[in-house]
């Protein structure tokens, strides 16, 4: 036949001639070749079909079609001939006879054994499947937990960013308030300078007025003397009055002037009455303000009662917190007891493990690097998870510290607001003082005008007296009657002047009274100033305490930052190690896959070589050379297999069992070799089928292993993503730390500005004290009515200011109470977190105990398996020795067979060659068993090392739990301190409220005094008005 390819088909042509296309050389040429590696032939089609059946595990068929006489039967015979020659392995002979002899035995030979082997393989596969599914579930659970942790980290980062934004806003508000305070300080200093200048001018004017008053007194004394002289001369000169009638006209003019002056005085009196009515209106407004103040006082008392209730609730919450703390301490004691028990168990386990290690020290030199690396990676992953948990705890601590800092910043703001309010109160006092000074100036100017008018009147009177003297001396006799009339008029004028003098004296007396009252008020103001100084000193003390607390928190924050930086460094180093280990693990997996491929290729080459040796069988020298080559290749394969031991543990155990079954089959074949060569061939075929089935199972397991590797790679990708997210979170934490440092710097600047503001405030207080003294000296000489009105206005303003301060203090107390409630809630939440952390530690301790128990059981199982493997290795060594003896015998027989072959025994040569092949296969099997035994020993050594590593990790976990318990105890102590500080703050707030109540009562008393003074002034003004009307 001549063969060609037409696409996927093989076309044949019958040349009606015999061609040498079907001999043994052609069969060996197409053995194991692919379709494109050899010329077209039916042997290529059949060999490829056989290979596809092995790889795809599907039945194959060759479809032969054509007309009658085209050669269909010949081609089918050639296909059967090809498979028969491959199976027999000898040269071309009468294969049709062999085929017809073997055909009935192919279907019925030992099917029961194959079924049993297949069932065992099926059970093993089911158990492996269940284990793989369990591992898959565990991996899925780990994935879910990792995703949850990722979400928690994102939420924490978002909350930290919000807290940072709030802190920045608060810092900006503090800076703005600082700028406003500085502007207000500048304004107050400028006002103080202006007031000092005004006070200096007022003192100069006061001195001038005193000089003028002394001169007026001297003039009044002179007038009295002149009046006495005039009365004496009046009796002597009564006859001269008649001559003075001409001067009456001038006197009438002077009378008209006096009447004008009287009208002016009446208009001034009406103005005073109008002022009194305005003051009465002011008094009415003051009464209304008093009623409002009383209502506000009632509201304040209600708020005080609410604050008392809140304090009772805080005390109850404090008792509850103390009870919870006691429970937490008891649980911590229980944890310590459990920890001691676990330490004792761990010591026992260490002793047992040391015994096991002493037994296995001789066999620890042979270890597989791949499994060690995998397990180190797992341990590193667990350590990373623990470090991530530690970083979470550190972040929780940082968030708590941030919350405490925010609370302290709020308290600072409140204190700054209090100081601003105190400064506003001082500014109000300065404004009231300025207003008083303006009123004093107006009164002083009015008094100067009145004095000027009196001086004018006195000068006019003196001029008239001089004129009268001259006229009297010249015309005394003529105008005596006129003098008498003028005397009467002068007597009336003298009476009016005396009444005016009495009124001035009464005014002086009232001014002295007002001076005494103002001095008493100045003393009260000095007492208030001393109280304000005491409050300022208390504020300074509080500020110093707060600075100390701030320094402590800064130290804590720096320690937390140091811990965070250390944790970040460790996380980075661990991440780099993780990447290195992952790269090495991937490289090892690639090496494993390449070794598997080389192993398969080498196995195929070994099978090809053995078949070629069986088929060719021309010379023993060639067999020996191929044997040496096979041994060298076996040595290389063994070294490659030793490197790839870790990943093929399950497959190798199955292969061992299959090889035991093959050994049993081979033993039966050895017994029957002498009797039945044909049965030997059938057994070989059965064994090849079993090997094919095992190879198929191996392929399926390799696929499952590849799937598991894919899943593992996916998990590693997820881990890489988590690490990237961790790095982002660390960067954000570093940025937040930088922002916190900036905030701390701004806080330091704010504290410096606050110190400057306190110093300026002290200087301002000293200047205010000087101003008060000067005002006290000025106020001593002011009139009674306006002084009383001003006093009432001051009382009203002071009462309003005190009311404003009281309301502000009440607001501050309310805000402080709310802050205390918030701190209470935060303490409760912190306690809940502490309890959750304690529960987590308890669970971790239990998990550690369970791991230790599992390690003990694994160690016991490993010891039992070691004993079994040692027994099997000893048995294999014995078998190896027996086989070596058998090989020597067989070599001797081979020598004899060579001698017989020289005589012409071809059949015996073939039998001996088949026997040699069988023995070589047995030797290979024994070598494999020895390698498997060595692998088992290495596995157990690795397992023991893993158990020791797990025990060390358990010890580390116990130490970490101890550290966590100590940290929790420190947190509980800190919370107790915070609760005590909150109680002290509540007590101080109550004392402040009591002081505010006392100040309100004092303000009410002052308002009552001011009202009584106003009533007295009204009565005096009415009496003075009635007296003037009676005088007119």
From TrEMBL:
One of its GO terms (cellular component) is myosin filament. Residues 688-699 have a biased composition (Polar residues). Residues 677-704, 997-1032 are annotated as: Disordered. One of its GO terms (molecular function) is microfilament motor activity. Its main location: cytoplasm. Residues 1-98 form the Myosin motor domain. Belongs to the TRAFAC class myosin-kinesin ATPase superfamily. Myosin family. This is Myosin motor domain-containing protein. It comes from Perca flavescens.
